[in-house]
């Protein structure tokens, strides 16, 4: 998205229709980590290939590893070869891009070390964008901000990007926000959530607010319930130690899925600006009905995957993946939430996420209310609007139609489907591509404000505490399934079912 927040289009030559090459200094703290190699460098390469990055730009990797610039460029080239799509990889373009990549061995959380190597690479032009992307453990966010401030590297055009999670609860989130805020203004702090960089998540706003036919039925009069699902077929893998301290609620709901919920439920903003959009998202987060102990017992489900046979092959359980004898960490959850506004009164929002599930999908399902009286012999199923965030990005609407093969007046479901990739005849950029360039431009539309983080934790924390008290006992589910039966019962109580296997 450009500085005004409008979507960019990728042309046949690979360039964005509204792209303009910009020059900047981008410092990646934690530059030898998996995120940098798997996501950040490939995203920058794609932006460079499309002509969005000026050749005087410097992408500076910083880590404690004792590497030369050439050593780091070799690692970067290996990462590009592994993670850039084959039809985008070009040897000449890779060589030119690597000329922008630099490396400094430095512990950036230590203000007392020698920073001269990094300082010598940074432009002295105060108007040139300078971004510090902190891809480290959250406990290092404040020391890193302190060290950057101590070394007088903060200009009017400097921003700092913080990866999630911002804390593990309200208190630790406030500590991080207060600590970083001592050196950077709120306008300079970019809290990243890669879900907001997904084109299909951004398209929720376009579907709602650019199509009055939808917005006029987007309320409790027409909508029966909303489902938000983020399912993965993989286990925890190498993230086991981190994941066991976080769990699905912290890892997925507090940030990603509550952001999706707020986009689905928010009121129309006054203007398409960072301030107005985030004001409306914040109202929804604050309007979520607080979860009492009774609500936690009846309206939440938590579970952990055990051994199973997805695709006929034996898959280990969470404890085997983790290499630990016991754990109470949830790898699956389902929550029934309510939003206390006039628009959404009486409309339940169901959130679920899990690992080692039967299929990989991230979707939003909006089910409309059924016809109040039946005039046909076979009353049709309620219409559903399905937003496919990933994979198979697109949107579909199911409608009842007369079955032309029936001699009598029988109804059959017909689906209006839009496959975004086919419709726009283009590749969908990785979420980090838009996010990195937005940070360079200083556009905060796709980033999270401090009060949003705090409102999310305020709703999540009682659930965490309730689970710690075992108000809702931990269940298990076989790997390769859609979670425990109690998750189905959560919807069945209201007369609904999960929408499964959306393609």
From TrEMBL:
SUPFAM superfamilies: Glyceraldehyde-3-phosphate dehydrogenase-like, C-terminal domain, NAD(P)-binding Rossmann-fold domains
Record keywords: Carbohydrate metabolism, Glucose metabolism, NADP, Oxidoreductase
Listed pathway(s): Carbohydrate degradation; pentose phosphate pathway; D-ribulose 5-phosphate from D-glucose 6-phosphate (oxidative stage): step 1/3
Record domain Glucose-6-phosphate dehydrogenase C-terminal: where: 205-499
Enzyme Commission code: 1.1.1.49
The reaction(s) this protein catalyses: D-glucose 6-phosphate + NADP(+) = 6-phospho-D-glucono-1,5-lactone + NADPH + H(+)
EC supergroup of this enzyme: oxidoreductase
InterPro entries: G6P_DH, G6P_DH_AS, G6P_DH_C, G6P_DH_NAD-bd, NAD(P)-bd_dom_sf
Residue ranges of domain Glucose-6-phosphate dehydrogenase NAD-binding in the record: 27-203
Pfam family, one: G6PD_C
GO molecular function, a single term: glucose-6-phosphate dehydrogenase activity
Biological process per Gene Ontology, one example term: glucose metabolic process
Top-level lineage group: Bacteria
Annotated active site: 256
Cellular component annotations (GO), alphabetically ordered: cytosol
Binding site for NADP(+): 64, 164
Entry binding sites for substrate: 194, 198, 232, 251, 355, 360
Family note: Belongs to the glucose-6-phosphate dehydrogenase family.
Function: Catalyzes the oxidation of glucose 6-phosphate to 6-phosphogluconolactone.
Name of protein: Glucose-6-phosphate 1-dehydrogenase
Species this protein is from: Acetobacter aceti
